[in-house]
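yo

u said u wanted the structure for the complex thing, so here. seqs first:
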Amino acid sequence: MSRPRALIVVTGSELVRGERTDLNGPFLAREALRLGLEPARIAIVGDSADELEEALRAGLAAEACFVSGGLGPTHDDRTVEMVAKALGVGVHVDPALESQIQTVSRAAAERLKRDYADFAPGVTKQATIPDGAFSLGLAGTAPGLVIGHGDGQVAVVLPGPPSELQRLWPRALESEAFAALLARARPPKRRVLRLFGVSESAVARALAEAGGDGDGVEVTICARDFEIHVDLVIEPDAERRADELEAAFVPPLEQWLYSRDEEPIEAHVLDLCRARGWTLGTAESCTGGLVAARLTSVPGSSDVFLGAVVAYADEVKQSELGVPPELLAEYGAVSPEVAEAMAKGARTRLGVDVAVSVTGIAGPGGGTEEKPVGLVYLHAEGPNGGIGREFSFPGDRASIRARSAVGALHLVRRLVING
Amino acid sequence: MSRPRALIVVTGSELVRGERTDLNGPFLAREALRLGLEPARIAIVGDSADELEEALRAGLAAEACFVSGGLGPTHDDRTVEMVAKALGVGVHVDPALESQIQTVSRAAAERLKRDYADFAPGVTKQATIPDGAFSLGLAGTAPGLVIGHGDGQVAVVLPGPPSELQRLWPRALESEAFAALLARARPPKRRVLRLFGVSESAVARALAEAGGDGDGVEVTICARDFEIHVDLVIEPDAERRADELEAAFVPPLEQWLYSRDEEPIEAHVLDLCRARGWTLGTAESCTGGLVAARLTSVPGSSDVFLGAVVAYADEVKQSELGVPPELLAEYGAVSPEVAEAMAKGARTRLGVDVAVSVTGIAGPGGGTEEKPVGLVYLHAEGPNGGIGREFSFPGDRASIRARSAVGALHLVRRLVING
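structre next:
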């Protein structure tokens, strides 16, 4: 028995022009998969009426069609009009929705110290929905809609900004029409393995040597954020097969396996510190605050993470981290010695139990014969000592900085586990 | 006269499932735009034969169709077979291509310590191309192909890995069939306006009052990264029309217009400081280093940006930024008084000319009646005084933090311009 198909239509001229990367298609596709639907196509179109209409007609033919974007107040936001046209229904102004949008827009007008009159026409436009549509209420000023049609088919229409789309999504799942469709779907089980420090091909080889996937267990290996993420999608009847496969291919990878859940490494590190009752801080040069920014992206991080010193200039390394000028003179700012001094300085200055430091050459400039672009030193220092690492990372400035940040987080993990 | 349309078909099951974000669609779309083609649709499909065939048939109907992925050695790499089927032509093994792929595969077999026999069938499969196709040679083990068909139409078929696709792309541009199509294209001019502190609706209204776009000038208004980005795509013969439109709709928006190029605000701020000979630092609480991370993302930022103190805990605000405990006790960490003290402290401690501070409640926890989630105070302090701002930002933790960071960067801009 095949799964209900989900077709995704993403609209936005900046997306179809490649000026911005679409995040909604992948999110909706992952959700479809999780819910037991078959994500079959993601179509990204601009605000050309013809393109949008063609994509919507194709999308609305499937059991489930998820549409993102084109709900804004401007003249080229055409999604509602086009969905109604494709379904052959009319549109009307939803009074409840209109007053909700009014309230938000008045607040926005005040916040931006703008005349509300600027917003009024957009408000009415955004409160106009297809006949028979169910309003999910607002995220931002744009509404979300669920429309049941045809023979148990469902269209879910959501705003383009990813945070707004993701806020309204759970409400869509609860809507009567969508819930009825999902009752017919067969959600697969999912298992995740997160590894760091091993190559994608090594993991692929381990899987192949274990007999590979198939027989109701589909394995995806993908390098993401400089980790290797292995996802097992398991048909309702294939649990045992999945256990056997894992038992065969995980053991040789054990030393790189750091997690069996979706929790990102920064949250994982905070949990480990919390469990030890240790506080955490960072001392960053080439990452310029990326490590601290990732740690503080986690809600409730403030009980573990106390602060950071971004010491981009050598003077700041001396004044704020107490790195001895002789050390900088003798070994240079990008050296294991300075990395260690930065971490130790951060422990004292920030009064934290564990500090991790990053110093390196992110490029494109600043590289030399003996210290090329991509050379990065990390050091984690804790109550019971420290560990250092040297890396030569490939890629451009952004990628070297990101790799350094991920490396620093994993180094803290290692220190807290072993220290 | 309208532009030749370019439809993009991206294949890859991990892409249609959202397990990996597609980079090829956006790359090919930007290239199409630059070359004077109209990027009209990006379709992402998996390896289901039906989906792929439908997407290819639709794509190949356009003047230009760019296809990525599905050129691998395995049975579910169906792109070549499906393209040939959709074009109604046969396939054949290209001997030159076969020997190229053989060489690469023998090397891979050795590296992976596997029998070449495992690779042989895949080699022949990958060397099989549609009749009439022009081979671009190899990147990795996958070939690139250009196929002229119909009435001057072109299909470009490239490997899925972005680096391989981008390596073969320039060769595709030089192919006879593609060059002939591009000769008929008319690259547009592009102008950009970057605004901050004004709403999307207000900009849309200003555009409407100026007569709106059209007549060879297409205007896209889009809220991105909490700024408003206005892009004008201008037909070769519509320069004057663009000037007139700008003259009419820009003046009322002048006070929010901060840039006429693509340079992000962090680079813009660094340039402004550099021009004044001023150094820059940050003092961050709720943004946790985001402002510093954005500034240091710019190559060469080190001559202006010296460092940052991320003072997440109040103790760090006192010890590293010299914020008086009485101030924290009397007004609380989230207050204009503490924001000002943080910025002034950072100026002294980091030895910078300009410092900007951020303190606020990013949530989801920590909000109170009088200090709700989203309340953020910013303060920029320079050699000639300072300015503060209070915001109540909507959205989730990530969005409040990002808005705060953007707000801080724009506050520095204002200070440096007026100070």
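Chain B has three domains: 5-182, 189-259, 265-418. Residues 199 and 228 of chain B are 7 Å apart (CA to CA).
cya
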